[in-house]
Amino acid sequence: MLARAYLRPAWIGLAVYLFIAAAAVAALLSYATPMSWGQYVDDPYIWRVIRFSLWQALLSALISIVIAIPVASCLFHRRFIGRQALLNLFAISMVVPTIVAILGIVVVYGRSGWASSLMGEAFPLYGLVGILIAHVFFNMPLAVRMILQTYSLVPDSQWRLASQLGLSRTQAFRLIEWNYIKKSLPGLFLLIFMLCFSSFAVVLTLGGGPRSSTLEVAIYQALRFEFDLSKASYLSLLQILICTTVALCVYRLSPYVRQDISVFEGVRVPLKSTRWNSLCDISVMMLALLWVIPPFVAIFTPIFSELFWQTLFVPAVWVSVWHSLRIALPAGVLALVVAMSIASLARAVKWRAQVDKWANRFEQLGNLVLMVPGLVLATGLFIVFRELGIGISNAYWIVVWVNAMMALPFVLRAIMPTLYQQERRYRHLYDQYGIVGSARLMLEWQSCRSALAQGLAYAVLLSLGDLGVVALFGSENLVTLPMYLFQLVGSYRIEQGACVAVVLIILCLMLFLLINRGLGGRRAIV
Amino acid sequence: MSFKSIVFSAMALSISASAAANTLNVYTYDSFASDWGPGPKIKENFEAQCECDLNFVALDSSVGILSRVQLEGSESEADVLLGLDLNVMEAAKKTGLLAKHTVDTSDVTTPGGWSDDYFVPFDQGYFAFIYNSEALANPPKSLKDVVENQNLRVIYQDPRTSTPGLGLLLWMKSVYGEDAPKAWETLSRHTVTVSKGWYDGYSLFLKGEADVVLSYTTSPAYHIVAEGEDKYKAAPASEGFYPQVEVAAMLKNAPNKALAEQFMAFILQPGFQNTVATGNWMYPVTKNIDALPEAFTSQPKPTKVLTLPASEVADNRTEWVNEWLDATTR
């Protein structure tokens, strides 16, 4: 099955991806001296960092999910003005550049921020509180959207039955919804846990010193300031080990999920809503809105200031816009190409006797990159380049590749359901007529373009907001917009930074709309 | 100017900068190369005599300079590293990337004179805690006062990423010795934040987030000369001050060796040394230069200078940093 000629390009895509990832990790490991690792095992600081990383990741994932479940339920059952706008906002807050969101959060909760002036005393932002606020800001919307996806698994007949039996929202939740939601929770928990466990920019900015540090920041320290490749290898292996252990535990505990996602919205049957349900809906929606909206408002406030218009005339801003685009666009396209390679292989074996399990393995290959810190990939690639005699001037390609790889899990998540569905519906026709390769793509284009556009948009926006990889190579010839912003904020020129943040988020919104509407067509799911 | 033309002129600039054959690449930290630092003046003075391009590559911290050339290894395009300090010299030598210099350093005025085969000093100063004399009625008189006064809100820099931070680490070690971890723990109870670099921490202090901040004895001179403001003062230290000497070195694989040697010699000449006081706000290291502004000469000269031997620092640095990490995160 997998040896068919038309799958060769897909194999090449997968091979290039795996080869680059493996070469990067191997290159770094070749500098490791495991003999010296004994000293790190006894280092109490590293253990404290690990404990803190686990603790904050656990809290972030739990809080995000606990808020997301009732919010998703409310958004599914109710129709109100601004619902679609809210869903769009959630889509954007998932990919809003970290540094911009951090800036918004600082404006709202910082020492001289809105929260402090409302409460009359300084809000204790720096430390665990700040990290949690930021992590939930990013991941709660992600959780809401993923839980909403699982709602489409519920057959319409169940809702009709619930309506006929006169079930209230609470009863329906307990008897119907929860059975579907709970299946998606382990995967969701794992995704958010891993994203927060390897959180970098948030912890570096809002952690407030060595007390609140994550393993990823420790790796950054080891690479950037101590230049201790052996220690960095040790810490990365530790990170990979911990993530794998957590993943195995979660998958062991989770029930088998049948992949049969329908992306078409079903009929909505209104259910009886008690006063208690309405109260619940209102309070949980208020909480979610209060969490997500103020930082956005804060980000846009400088637009009315004179400084903002002056900022538009600073050449350095436009130079960094240019650098950002020339990294993000190729990285997005690369991510989409690799993701489609993986997807073609996975759908070819899906639902076929004996090889069906390979479909999941291909997907997991794509998600593997969540465990490896981006900085480790970047440094490893740099060492490979150095061994080949190619200098720092090629840092550009490293940044592009690493960004593309880091976006892969998100692209896969966006395109897989639609592609699987196409396969399920048309496989027999394809087989009968021998339609393969690019011919399939042409036929499917109309029904897949919106998902593909969404995947590309995620990848481009994630790369546009990247700070970890580009920070390692920080040179004046490669200052991206987030990097420039980080320099301004790092030197407490907050006001000018705020104006640059507006430029960055407008750029994000424009690209998001442009890609989704332009490539995705009218039916684009934004 | 349209967006396009800005982008293309910037591209053209970056291409022409890297393409110039007779270019000297100097890696330094960001504030040295910034518009308000001594960088632009030095560039002008050096280019007038060398008929070349002096290109400063600004990195985010002084420790970052070293790790960057280590990452680049023999492929590095750097000719000269400017902005390492006394306490990372041994670590830098061990990388094997540096070349010996040929500069005569016999006239250098650092404490105890200067003799080092690899490094040429370019400025010096003493670490000190700075306070606002209008806001703080009872300023500390010693390092012990800073550590033990629980009402004093303190900001200092991370010793892993910043040379003042590392300086404080050694200062604490030379005052407290074996008891340093305990002193760190006491200090951490009234520390506002440990900042990544000098500039972050100092800006927070100026915004009123702390009572004292770790900086240099010469920092008040900046406020007097540049702002006409004399409320900022350096707290005295009865135990003695810890010195900082900032140094430069050239690389073994420097693409432009002749220019690098010329620049190393230029460091001790008036064209460089005259910019140090009011550009980097540090003391120069030679005597044959313009008189310093009064704001500098009126600062109290340290009566006692503490220093730990360079070899001891090199051998124990990691251990002491771990000691600090352990004590402050407990």
UniProtKB/TrEMBL annotation, chain A:
<feature type="transmembrane region" description="Helical">
    <location>
        <begin position="324"/>
        <end position="345"/>
    </location>
</feature>
<feature type="transmembrane region" description="Helical">
    <location>
        <begin position="52"/>
        <end position="75"/>
    </location>
</feature>
<feature type="transmembrane region" description="Helical">
    <location>
        <begin position="232"/>
        <end position="251"/>
    </location>
</feature>
<keyword id="KW-1003">Cell membrane</keyword>
<feature type="transmembrane region" description="Helical">
    <location>
        <begin position="455"/>
        <end position="474"/>
    </location>
</feature>
<feature type="transmembrane region" description="Helical">
    <location>
        <begin position="188"/>
        <end position="207"/>
    </location>
</feature>
<feature type="transmembrane region" description="Helical">
    <location>
        <begin position="122"/>
        <end position="144"/>
    </location>
</feature>
<keyword id="KW-0677">Repeat</keyword>
<dbReference type="InterPro" id="IPR035906">
    <property type="entry name" value="MetI-like_sf"/>
</dbReference>
<keyword id="KW-1133">Transmembrane helix</keyword>
<feature type="transmembrane region" description="Helical">
    <location>
        <begin position="396"/>
        <end position="416"/>
    </location>
</feature>
<dbReference type="GO" id="GO:0022857">
    <property type="term" value="F:transmembrane transporter activity"/>
</dbReference>
<feature type="transmembrane region" description="Helical">
    <location>
        <begin position="12"/>
        <end position="32"/>
    </location>
</feature>
<dbReference type="GO" id="GO:0005886">
    <property type="term" value="C:plasma membrane"/>
</dbReference>
<feature type="transmembrane region" description="Helical">
    <location>
        <begin position="87"/>
        <end position="110"/>
    </location>
</feature>
<feature type="transmembrane region" description="Helical">
    <location>
        <begin position="365"/>
        <end position="384"/>
    </location>
</feature>
<comment type="similarity">
    <text>Belongs to the binding-protein-dependent transport system permease family.</text>
</comment>
<protein>
    <recommendedName>
        <fullName>Thiamine transport system permease protein ThiP</fullName>
    </recommendedName>
</protein>
<feature type="transmembrane region" description="Helical">
    <location>
        <begin position="282"/>
        <end position="304"/>
    </location>
</feature>
<keyword id="KW-0472">Membrane</keyword>
<keyword id="KW-0813">Transport</keyword>
<comment type="subunit">
    <text>The complex is composed of two ATP-binding proteins (ThiQ), two transmembrane proteins (ThiP) and a solute-binding protein (ThiB).</text>
</comment>
UniProtKB/TrEMBL annotation, chain B:
<dbReference type="GO" id="GO:0055085">
    <property type="term" value="P:transmembrane transport"/>
</dbReference>
<dbReference type="InterPro" id="IPR006059">
    <property type="entry name" value="SBP"/>
</dbReference>
<keyword id="KW-0574">Periplasm</keyword>
<dbReference type="GO" id="GO:0030976">
    <property type="term" value="F:thiamine pyrophosphate binding"/>
</dbReference>
<dbReference type="InterPro" id="IPR006061">
    <property type="entry name" value="SBP_1_CS"/>
</dbReference>
<dbReference type="Pfam" id="PF13416">
    <property type="entry name" value="SBP_bac_8"/>
</dbReference>
<dbReference type="InterPro" id="IPR005967">
    <property type="entry name" value="ThiB"/>
</dbReference>
<protein>
    <recommendedName>
        <fullName>Thiamine-binding periplasmic protein</fullName>
    </recommendedName>
</protein>
<dbReference type="GO" id="GO:0030975">
    <property type="term" value="F:thiamine binding"/>
</dbReference>
<dbReference type="GO" id="GO:0015888">
    <property type="term" value="P:thiamine transport"/>
</dbReference>
<feature type="signal peptide">
    <location>
        <begin position="1"/>
        <end position="19"/>
    </location>
</feature>
<keyword id="KW-0813">Transport</keyword>
<dbReference type="InterPro" id="IPR005948">
    <property type="entry name" value="ThiB-like"/>
</dbReference>
<dbReference type="GO" id="GO:0030288">
    <property type="term" value="C:outer membrane-bounded periplasmic space"/>
</dbReference>
<comment type="similarity">
    <text>Belongs to the bacterial solute-binding protein 1 family.</text>
</comment>
<keyword id="KW-0732">Signal</keyword>
